[in-house]
Amino acid sequence: LSAVFAPEGSRILTASTDGTARLWNATTGEPLHTFKHNRSVRTGSFPRLISAVFAPEGGRILTDSVDRTVKLWNATTGDLLRTFTRTDTDPVMFSREGGRVLMVSNDDTAKICNAMTGGLLHNLKHEEGGLHSAVFSPEGGRVLTAAVDGNATLWNATTGGRLHTWQFSDIPSFFIAAVFSSDGGRILTATAWGRTKVWDAAGRELWELIHEEGQVVKSAVFGLQGGRVVTVLEDDTAEVWGLESVA
């Protein structure tokens, strides 16, 4: 399902469709720990994992499963530290410093929680409904949420205050991407029906990427340095955009 290196590179974390995450010595291949969620009462099997990630410092691991439980583990001892319950299917993520966890709920809120205590820090509420994704900015000071009604919102992750909202309600569409560049200075939004735009951190439009009429966009991401964008279309072709060359 997935495999990632620890931040220091000496361990590998894998997530499997059999419902287990495993930690390995990257040099010897020796298994170090196995992490499992509780068996399903109905089926008796372990629930399939959605993701398994390291905290930024590498000392903790977060596993997320289809049973809508998120578990925080000690990566050194293998001990379970805390269990969170979420109500949507989006994977959860750590903030950069590792002290907070961001989850999307089906009550149309993005919840910022204390990673150690599980305490709720902020409820970021999308009043119109249909919230489906939320991400921390690279520095952890902001959160970007996107909804199926064509609205995306930038939030202050410290205060929970709303900083900016982008609205594309003039056409029937929904966001399939709302992400930060690696330095946090630019924001990329893309709707399924071809409204792909790049903004600065204050919400000012920098570029619009013009797709051929009728093209349906499946995904959009920044390049590593933020100077390029890759969009994937419904016909499984990919477009690479050099932002400085976009009129």
Give structural attributes.
53% strand, globular, mainly beta, four-stranded antiparallel β-sheet, 247 residues
Percent range for β-strand residues:
over 45%
Indicate the mean pLDDT.
84
SSE string: EEEEEEEEEEEEEEEEEEEEEEE
Helix content bin:
under 10%
Contiguous uncertain segments of 5+ residues: none
CA radius of gyration: 19 Å
Class derived from helix and strand content: mainly beta
Strand order of the largest sheet: 1-2-3-4
Regarding quaternary structure, how should these chains be classified? single chain
Largest sheet: 4 strands, antiparallel
**What distance lies between the first and last C-alpha atoms, to the nearest angstrom?**
40 Å
Number of helices: 0
Question: How does this model look, in words?
Answer:
The N and C termini lie far apart (40 Å). It is built from no helices and 23 strands. The mean pLDDT is 84. The chain is globular.
List the helices and strands and how they pair.
Elements lengths: L1 E4 L5 E5 L4 E6 L5 E6 L12 E6 L5 E6 L3 E6 L5 E6 L7 E2 L5 E6 L3 E6 L5 E6 L5 E6 L5 E6 L3 E6 L5 E6 L7 E6 L5 E6 L3 E6 L4 E6 L6 E6 L5 E6 L4 E5 L5
Antiparallel strand pairs: 1-2, 2-3, 3-4, 5-6, 6-7, 7-8, 9-10, 10-11, 11-12, 13-14, 14-15, 15-16, 17-18, 18-19, 19-20, 21-22, 22-23
